[in-house]
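for the recovery benchmark. tokens below, seq after
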């Protein structure tokens, strides 16, 4: 039986920490970065990305259509649920934590105690919709 592989996943490969390519992502606040580790997040199929958020940065309430699994790589990941940001309602997850977030769940993140890095595993395409259009960096007006 012939096995069908996802695009770009038919050969053994490894990505070392020094080879991770951090890039700005239009839907993130300034300073936050995204690195595509595996797959093609804009297309249907599995993907793995990493998200690096600098100290003090808040990702205002938003949701994703896809179910997501977050693995905290470094720092402390603060996440809260709801359509309105409330710093008193965030939970702290240290490195090694795994957070399961069902698709279409309104939530927010806060780099409350320093930079954090999470790894996100999901089935694409990746989507991100802010609750308030004014919080979306893709729709900031001069």
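predicted aa per position
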């Amino acid at each position: 039986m012939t096995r069908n592989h996802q695009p770009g996943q038919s050969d053994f490969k490894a990505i070392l920490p020094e080879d991770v390519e951090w890039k700005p992502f239009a839907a993130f606040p300034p300073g936050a970065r995204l690195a595509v580790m595996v797959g093609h997040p804009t297309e249907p199929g599995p993907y793995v990305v990493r998200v690096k958020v600098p100290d003090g940065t808040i990702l205002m309430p938003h949701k994703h259509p896809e179910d997501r699994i977050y693995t905290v790589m470094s720092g402390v990941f603060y996440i809260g649920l709801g359509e309105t940001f409330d710093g008193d309602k965030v939970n702290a997850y240290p490195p090694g934590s795994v957070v399961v977030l069902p698709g279409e769940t309104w939530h927010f993140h806060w780099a409350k105690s320093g930079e954090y890095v999470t790894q996100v595993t999901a089935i694409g395409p990746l989507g991100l919709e802010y609750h308030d259009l004014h919080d979306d960096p893709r729709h900031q007006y001069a």
